[in-house]
Amino acid sequence: MKRIEVKAETPGSVIRHEVSPGDTVSEDDPILTIESMKMEIPISAPVDGRVVEILVAPGDAVATGQTVAVIEA
Amino acid sequence: MPFEREIAEHARRREKALAMGSKRKLEEFAAAGLLNARQRIAFLLDEGSFQEVGLFAVSERPEDRDRSPCDGVVTGYGRIDGREVGVVAYDFTTLGASSAPVASLKFQHVRKTTIARGIPMVILGEAGGARIPDVMGARGIARTRSHQVYDRRRQTPWVTAILGQSYGSPSWKAAMSDFVLMRKGAVLAVSSPKVTAVAISEEVDPEDLGGWRLRTEVTGEVDQAYATDQEVLLAIRRFLSYMPSNANEPPPRAPVPPGSGEGMERILEIVPEQRERVYDVRRVIDVIVDRDSFFPIKERFAKVLTCGLARIDGRTVGIIASNPIFKGGALDPQACRKATSFVVLCDSFNIPLVFLTDTPGFLVGVEGERLGLAGHIMNFNHALEMATVPKLAVIMRKSYGQAYINMGGTADEIAAWYSADVSFMDSAAAVNVLHGVRRQTDPERFEALRSELARDTSAYDLAAGFLAQDVIDPRETRAWLIRMLAVHENRVSGGVGRHYMATWPYNF
Asked: I need a surface site. Which of A34, A37, B100, B457 has the fewest CB within 10 A?
């Protein structure tokens, strides 16, 4: 098992979580949605795996490269 | 029987060469479920079409003559869907397919023929690097120089597949090819982990050094990766089905599969009416193009921009589409690099370009600037200006700022969907920039200023100035493209462009 950090690719603010810790996700499944550049943009799983934790809450600001969730793959 | 001795000797020599190198390595290949060089060629080409050159070639070093069948590289010609190609397959079981002078002559022979006769070149790469001791010493290394290899002018398509460990020679070929594939588990790098570990005194994981994820996602040097040799070889056949045999002919036309265009009605459900909602543009492409004809290029690299070959009404097209599901479709330096190399590929082989635009602009910021964003934007623009293939653009929703020019603003025909919004920037962002007013702090004033800035940004405003040639319903997109591709067929030159970028680099 490898811990994979899910990182934000654009800065923005978190609108909502799309999955919960413990959920199984496939590559490209949205983990959470942020608002950035006037759009609702998903941050998606880079690999198949299980969500271990989500590190940001709705309303939080995220920066480019910030780790927002951890997946076990 | 006349010539009895010669016949037996001929058969013996032929059999020995066809048996390739080390038995143990051949068994390891089979046990791992991999194809060897000759099996790869047989799987790639139309059955029975392989015409080998150099079966009896061996190393020039007397001590290696008996253990270097074909000098480690199987070369020749064959057919793919009835069309001739040149093929070079590195045989890893023979001295690790290490590069050596006779092998190099064989490569140059096939290369020369493919250019002179106008047929594609396919390279099946896997090699441990240069052969030692052949390349050692001043004479050894200096003799490896070859204008025959590095002078490429895109006269015919080059495809390289990396099917195992690849250091040195096949890695250079991949870096000079129009289309590059990789088997997952293969490694593409300049030098082996062993050499690297010695050079930098650090153990290196081969996947970190040149695994498929690095090459397809981070550097973009590999266009597609597959789990098996067979899938890679089928993808080569598929890539070539879109391509002309050489730059002097138009791409072949294919029959239109039944059911093409049937999904056009669904397009209104795929693209959200609210501009702040995103979607995956690959679903839009799938309904517009001939059924199942979309073939993505660098799909895992710079995902904000989807590029790929497809057919519309049986004609090959190159699609450049914003993909809002990734970073909202904002263009970063990597996306510009990807677009530039794709424009060069399409223009060099007479493939019309189709833009599907929905971008908030360039992804400005420190990261982009550190990577030289302006230079990458201008390379992309420069490529579009040099291109002489027909360019058609469909503005789906947003097209803002300088990115308007990159994403179809220079096209021969522009159609805007009635949902298009075209301006210097998003009106809400403009309120922030020009007036320093935010929606949260003063909603009333914000809305007033926003509606003022949102004036004259519609599809009809663009068409009123004849800056778009039509405003269409999204469901009419396929029909519009079919008609415009027919109108813009390059009759004057028989479908062949000027190829001003034939000598442009392969990596940007």
From this structure: B457
Rounded Cα gap, residues B200 and B196, in angstroms: 6
Is the pLDDT at B453 greater than 80? The verdict is: yes
Q: For chain B, give every domain's residue range.
A: 4-242, 262-420+458-493, 424-457
Q: From residue B284, how far is each of B57, B137, B214, B262, B270 by CA, in Å?
A: 52, 58, 28, 12, 7
Which residues of A fall within a CB distance of 8 Å from B277? Answer: 39-40
User: What is the rounded average pLDDT for all residues in chain B?
Assistant: 95
Report the pLDDT averaged over residues B36-48.
98
In three-state secondary structure terms, B298 is: coil
Provide CATH code, domain B4-242: 3.90.226.10
Cα B449 from Cα B464, distance rounded (Å): 24
Q: For the residues of B135-154, what is the DSSP string, one character each?
A: T-HHHHHHTT--HHHH----
Q: Which fold has domain A3-72?
A: OB fold (Dihydrolipoamide Acetyltransferase, E2P) (2.40.50)
- Spatial contact of B360 and B323, defined as CB atoms under 8 Å apart: no
The 10s digit of each residue's pLDDT in B481-506 is 999 999 999 999 999 999 999 999 99
| DSSP type of residue B362 | B
pLDDT tens digit sequence for B457-473? 999 999 999 999 999 99
CB contact under 8 A, B429 and A39: no
Q: Which residues of A touch B324 (CB under 8 A)?
A: 39, 41
Q: Read off the pLDDT of residues B276-325 as tens digits, 9 standing for 90 and up.
A: 899 999 999 999 999 999 999 999 999 999 999 999 999 999 999 999 99
* ipTM of this complex: 0.84
pLDDT value of residue B452: 87
SS3 state of residue A62: strand
Residues in chain A closer than 8 A to B327 (CB atoms): 9-10, 36-37, 41
Q: What is the DSSP pairing of strand A67-72 with strand A49-54? A: antiparallel
CA-nearest of B4, B167, B153, B259 to B499 is B153
Report the CATH architecture of B262-420+458-493. Answer: Alpha-Beta Complex (3.90)
pLDDT beyond 90 at B441: no
Q: Are B218 and B337 in contact (CB under 8 A)?
A: no
